[in-house]
Amino acid sequence: MKSKKPKEHYVDNKLFLEAMKAYKKKCKVAKQEGEPNPPVDNYLGSCFLKIANHLSYRPNFINYTFRDDMVSDGIENCLQYLSNFNPAKSSNPFAYFTQIIYYAFIRRIQKEKKQVEVKQKLIAEANYDDMTLQPHEDGDFKNQFTEFLQKNNRLEESKKKDKPKKKKKKITKSSTLFN
């Protein structure tokens, strides 16, 4: 019987921690000399890229068309908050930067949803007859695409209004004792 070889992780947490410690030392020396922080080495950059790429393949992120933007935002946030990682408090930089990337993805999705809503409102409120009719046409022209978008936009708005709000569970002394 063949013994299973242990699965190799795409980012080795121990090497990643050692690289972070080395980078923090370089930053400390640069700060004492009054210089800006040194650039991030290729290993740290590749770790950020690998974490962001692998996280983008999770089922809750894979189907977005702007996945490349999500990965870029995640890497940017890692570089932005790189100095906040403290090896004395945590020995798990993989988890720290995965969380940073995860929340960068969530922020990008929220931004894109807002943009989609703005685009839908512009389309719904636009008067396409003025833009599409030629001077010799009589005006009986109807834009089916515009009608479709306006109808669907109204449906989405009514769904948002009709959604019942979740009731908060009231915590009592007896409910905490028996749960």
Q: What is the ordering of alpha helices and beta strands?
A: HHHHHHH
Task: Describe the main β-sheet briefly.
Answer: none
Rounded to an integer, what's the Rg over CA atoms? 26 Å
Number of strands: 0
In helices, the fraction of residues equals 55-70%
Q: Helix/strand/pairing class, anyone?
A: mainly alpha
- Oligomeric state of the chains in view: single chain
Number of helices: 7
Low-confidence stretches: 173-179
Mean pLDDT: 81
Give the DSSP E fraction (strand runs of 2 or more residues).
under 5%
Q: Looking at the structure, what is the overall shape?
A: elongated
What is the straight-line distance between the termini?
47 Å
Task: Summarize the structure in words.
This protein is mainly alpha-helical. The protein contains seven helices and no strands. The longest helix is centred in the middle third of the chain and has 33 residues, at 93-125.
Notable features of this structure?
about 180 residues; about 65% helix; mainly alpha; elongated; disordered C terminus; 7 helices
Task: Summarize the model shown.
The chain has helices spanning 13-32, 42-56, 67-80, 93-125, 128-132, 144-162, 173-178. It has 179 residues and is mainly alpha-helical. Helix 2 packs across helix 3 and helix 3 packs across helix 4 (93-125).
